[in-house]
Amino acid sequence: MSTPSSPTAFSAAVAAVRAGRPLDEAVDELLSQLTREERLWLLDGDLPFWQGMADMMTHGYNLTPYPMGRVERLGIPGLLFSDGPRGVVMGQSTAFPVSMARGATWDVELEERVGTAIGLELRAQGANFFGGVCVNLPRHPAWGRAQETYGEDPVLLGEFGAALTRGVQRNAMAVVKHYALNSMENARFKVDVTADDAALHEVYLAHFRRVVEEGVSGVMTAYNSVNGEWAGQNEHLMEGVLRGMWGFEGVTVSDFIWGLRDAAASLRAGLDVEEPFRQQRAEHLAADLEAGRASWDDVDRAARRILTTQVRHYAALTEPEPPLDVVFGAEHRALAREVAARGMVLLKNDPVGDAPLLPLNRDALASLAVVGRLADVANTGDNGSSDVRAPEVITALRGLTEALPDTRITHVADDDPAAAAAAAAQADVAVVVAGYTAADEGEWVGGDVLADAELMALFPPPGDDPAGQSFAAFMAEPGAVESMSGGSAGGDRASLRLRPVDAEIIRAVAAANPRTVVVIVTAGAVITEEWREAVPAVLISWYSGCEGGRALADVLLGDADAAGRLPYSIPATEEHLPYFDRDATAITYDKWFGQRLLDRDGHAAAFPLGFGLSYTSFALADLTVSAPDGDCFTAVVTVTNTGSRGGRHVVQLYGRPTGIDAAADDFPTRVLLGFATVELAAGESARVTVPASTRPLRRWTPGGFVPASATAVIEAASYAGDPGAVTAPAELALV
């Protein structure tokens, strides 16, 4: 949406700011023209609650923008919400690979291009507010919505969230979520997460801080409570940390429907907008103001932030209005394919005969067996609020069929190890596609939620409202809960392993054909110990978006290098992970998870953070490091492609604080500081600059951050703990 062409109070404010008037002056003048009723109107959604719920129930989630605080009299456009993050949820948009797949590219420039495409599709369809910058840290890989975030490390999360924000905000306001400590799905409406200040600032808030510094327009609070107070009315998090410590100047918004429990308390605590409908604030806030439970100063504080965010965005908007045909256009589909291929992670590629099995030689491939229930399924991720309804999804089977028109391809979809083995025995190569769907992991609204009296008390009484009566009747029908959540059973994963029948099929196929590739569809870590040794090649393809099948063919056939790197570690056993109870009502988060926990406890990862094979090989040499400038420094390292074909490498920069014992000092022995990608032809070398931060080398104290040690060893590596890492000749001074 653009600024209205006819003169209005809002467009005058925008024009004044563009002409050089201070933003706060223009906003104060605009605010002064609002009636008290209009100021309250800014603080929640515009749709009546039961109308909005009925529309969501009968037509679907977020098919068009959810308007919040639009004031037509003054031309205030309001916050016109569309969800994400794998694309624009509205309409029929481009389904990009899920965020975790994009994190596996380790390429922030590529993510910024995705953000630009999303912003264009969002704006073309009438929205201006993108709720899809998800940077929650998946403390445990069973988290059902791990697909919506980028990886296990705060640096990776922060840089990717910042990149998506930069891209989106060329055309729309970006919103980072869910603030904070949201990494349990089944218990998200009831769990109280306890974390001390050190864990909060060193780990769970660090990436939010980075995205705020990038200039994100909005912050969405989480459903869960943090240290005893619901996130949507947590004054310490919103006013203390977000605004007081970090200087955030944008707008805070609740998560949908159950994102706050007390209208007045949320306003006092610093929550600006209740999303997405007229709900608790519309019902209670006027009386709360009358009774003194909140003040008009609180209202004006929120209203000023809401107006400031919009005026700032439209005053900075320089991009022309995009045409509607940009949505799911050829350029964005090509980008989705590029991203999907770049993110696929090759975990194993053993020789079969005299060469590694992958890439496959299409000219020598007369027959191919494609095995698995997921091989010909449009499986782009969960069916919850992040679902993107792309008009077409290219499955693995279709992608391979298109890429191999002269190859005889046999597909076995049934869970039948014998049939799969028989097909594999008659083929030159077998590809087994296994993993998860929305039934296994994803957003979840279970029956106990809609039977929870405390949560249902947050709904306004239906009274005589026909929409409210209709909703009540709907909820009495069988299957209503599943319909509300898009049919996604999802939730937190019950297991980190493939189904037993998948393991049987893999072993049977591998026994019948030594040239077997296993392709894993997943978001989080999958433990593969019971079958991995049986096969020569394993590739993680993720939920790979609308062009995923073509991207898979690109990687398997070597048209694209295997360039993805794990955005998290994969343990050898569940026992090496933090405690996790998906039904918990209370849990404590400390600093220890993922690669950091494995390092502390001396457990070797099955695959460490940052791991991934290429179709070529790389060597690192001659690392130099600049002196820190504030929190930032740069490293420069020589990368050489030592193989026989072109490829792409990810240089990862790690810091090892000197004299640290992880258990005794409650601080990791190795932390990621930065990363960069480089593409090189066979035999080519390049000096690669890696931007990095010293923040992960600092610990939190009551007085703020201090260095964990006086110096740190800096190493450039291909993954965490890489024995081929090169070390800077001198330690980096931190004090």
TrEMBL record:
Keywords: Hydrolase
Keyword Hydrolase found: yes
Gene3D superfamilies referenced in this protein's UniProt entry, alphabetically: Glycoside hydrolase family 3 C-terminal domain (3.40.50.1700), Glycoside hydrolase, family 3, N-terminal domain (3.20.20.300), Immunoglobulins (2.60.40.10)
Pfam family, any one: Glyco_hydro_3
InterPro entries, per database record: Cellulose_deg_GH3, Fn3-like, GH, Glyco_hydro_3_C, Glyco_hydro_3_C_sf, Glyco_hydro_3_N, Glyco_hydro_3_N_sf, Ig-like_fold
Every Fibronectin type III-like domain range: 649-720
Chain segments annotated as transmembrane: none
Listed GO MF terms: hydrolase activity
PANTHER family noted in UniProt: BETA-GLUCOSIDASE (PTHR42715), BETA-GLUCOSIDASE B-RELATED (PTHR42715:SF3)
Family affiliation: Belongs to the glycosyl hydrolase 3 family.
Record protein name field: Glycoside hydrolase family 3 C-terminal domain-containing protein
Organism for this UniProt entry: Microbispora maris
